[in-house]
Amino acid sequence: MAPPMSAADFLDRLREEGVTVVEVGDWVHHNRDHKGPWGPVHGVMIHHTVTEGSEYTVELCRAGYAGLPGPLCHGVVTKDGRVHLVGYGRANHAGLGDDDVLRAVIAEKALPPDNEANTDGNRHFYGFECENLGDGEDPWPQAQLDAIEKVAAAVCRHHGWTERSVIGHLEWQPGKIDPRGFTMQWLRERVRDRLK
């Protein structure tokens, strides 16, 4: 069981990994903690936003929308490779997912198919939203892919996790397709190599 790192440590770990960080408002205290606990944490979840335009994307992920209040993640990875911190604590990003997947993440084993939604993922995962339309055609610039690799590695490095603690939303919740445009296996291999 791992308690979440402090917001200060989170910021430090990202910067130590070479991430260009943008702090958005009072991100340290912007969370959904009144809706339930955050932690113990077990992994990092990667999403795509189905949006375009960095300014709009960051504001949406910070504020949320009707029916899903923000923050919608901890950090937004925009196409230019910057990581915008929009909240810290419980965030509305993972939703309900598969308890078998969570057990595999904790054990750092291969993930089983996600076939049920019975476990609160907002409690157990750091979340990064990545600016992309998610249509399989919108490009992923190299700077953005590098930043996604770095944020995942930074969190794993802090907690002593391997690349198997990095999952996509599509591996957690049935019916989700994100991130689309690269495979999680490819990303985990990059994180593995970075952690060596």
UniProtKB/TrEMBL annotation:
Matching Pfam families: Amidase_2
GO molecular function: N-acetylmuramoyl-L-alanine amidase activity
Superkingdom to which the source organism belongs: Bacteria
UniProt record, GO biological process: peptidoglycan catabolic process
Positions of the N-acetylmuramoyl-L-alanine amidase domain: 27-180
Annotated signal peptide: none
Protein name listed in UniProt: Peptidoglycan-binding protein
The species this protein was found in: Streptomyces lacrimifluminis
